[in-house]
Amino acid sequence: MKPEPTIFVVDDDAAVRRAIASAGRLLGRPVKPFASAADFLATFDSSQPGCLVLDLKMPGMTGIELQQQLVNEGVALPIVVVSGHADVRIAVDVMTRGAITVLEKPFRLEELLAQLRKALEQDAKHRREAAAQAEANAKLAGLTAKEREVLEAIAAGKTNKEIAEDLGLSLRAVEDRRARLMKKVEARTVAELVQVLNRR
User: How far apart are CA 189 and CA 169, in angstroms?
Assistant: First the structure.
């Protein structure tokens, strides 16, 4: 079974953690609350889908420092920042690093729910795209160098005859390579073949 998308919360304010847990129940999503960035990092697994609600000012590691660490580690978990202390400079800073939005405390429930939906949808889309890219790369990795030559020529819009002339091959040889590579990448049409290439 695929892991269920989870709303992670890192905030030293217990009342905020409870409010976001309530929002999670309304969305039908599990919520995992943490009182500190260290507690979150101790158990977080980047393969777990979901999003992160993150306070900026906390004892120990701040929200900004946690966000930067996740960025440095290549973790693309969407982040909704909540803060009672965010000025324009800080808001621009965290959003430049990929935060979805900055909600000022106290925030409205409707506003929080809208941003959580957006974050969860973004994460799901990103994971679908990453899975499609990995699948495309696996298919292309099975091609020989000669098949890859023909593939790149097809993607450039060249006909079999033009490919044969460019590579000094017979038309039959090009047709054979084309048939083999299309079978390997599981493409029935040139359009499907180009789609695989574009996912690399």
Answer: 22
Q: Please tell me whether residue 20 adopts helix, strand or coil conformation.
A: helix
Structure confidence by residue, pLDDT tens digits, 27-56: 999 999 999 999 999 999 999 999 999 999
* The CATH number fitting domain 142-198, selected from 1.10.645.10, 1.10.10.10, 3.40.109.10, 3.40.190.10: 1.10.10.10
The pTM assigned to this predicted structure is 0.78
Distance from C-alpha of 67 to C-alpha of 56, rounded to nearest angstrom: 9
Sheet strand arrangement including 50-55: 31-34, 6-10, 50-55, 79-83, 101-104
The two three-digit tokens of residue 101, written as one number: 């939005």
3's CB contacts (< 8 A; 6+ apart) are 47, 48, 49
Do residues 94 and 74 touch, judged by C-beta distance below 8 A?
Answer: no
